[in-house]
Amino acid sequence: MQVSFFMKTIFMSFLLGGLITSAQANQASAISELYQRLESMGKEIDELRGENETLRKGLGDLRQSQKQTFLALDERIKKQASAKATAAPQARAAIPARPPVKKEPVKPAPVAAQKPATPTKVNVKADYNQAYATLKRDHGIGIKAFENFLKKYPTDPLAENAHYWIGEAKYSKKDYRGAIDSFIVVLNKYKKGRKAPDAAVKLGYSFYAVKDWNLARRTFNDVLRYFPKSNAAKLAQKRLDQMKAEGH
């Protein structure tokens, strides 16, 4: 350094010249200390310069390493992109084409069956009268006529009468078991119907005909209990008196 060289020159000139006084000696001592400080500072500056150079070199190495890393990564990305681009057509080629879908022929919608016309009261009454007239002429044919009527009009109010007349016809033909079945149908389905009292007393007659005295007596008593003011009640009481006289 220029300062160091200058201080050395001054100090040596004082020593060689023999001109050092007390004040000059003190001044020289101060200059010497200053020189030492400057010398120390120079060394520190040199050390700092060396450290800076080391740091600068390390930073350069780090930048170079990062650059190489980025270049390698970029190269890897390019290779992967190229590999995907090559594999895509092969993958598409490996997928088989879908077979054509067969279209089923369109079936025409089924035509709804037309509902039969609702029977009118006139038609029902006419069919009933015809079956009743047939029954008067021939009980066997009349029974079939009323059975057909019930198939055709099972829920019509006249169905009660049809069941009753079938029972009457069977009773007249001495088919007492068949008559019992028909009269029971009337009493089960039409307990409060107009034919219920007559069906009850005729049921008692049918039990009497098959000599089932207990059921006959019980049925006649039921007629008296449930239909006390009906003509059927009079007939039931008369038959009870007869059974009593007969010892049944």
UniProtKB/TrEMBL annotation:
Domain of life: Bacteria
Listed Pfam families: TolA_bind_tri, YfiO
Keyword set includes rRNA processing: no
InterPro entries: BamD-like, CpoB, CpoB_C, TPR-like_helical_dom_sf, YbgF_tri
UniProt cross-references to SUPFAM superfamilies, sorted A to Z: TPR-like (SSF48452)
Record GO cellular component, one term: outer membrane-bounded periplasmic space
Annotated family: Belongs to the CpoB family.
Protein name: Cell division coordinator CpoB
Underlying gene: cpoB
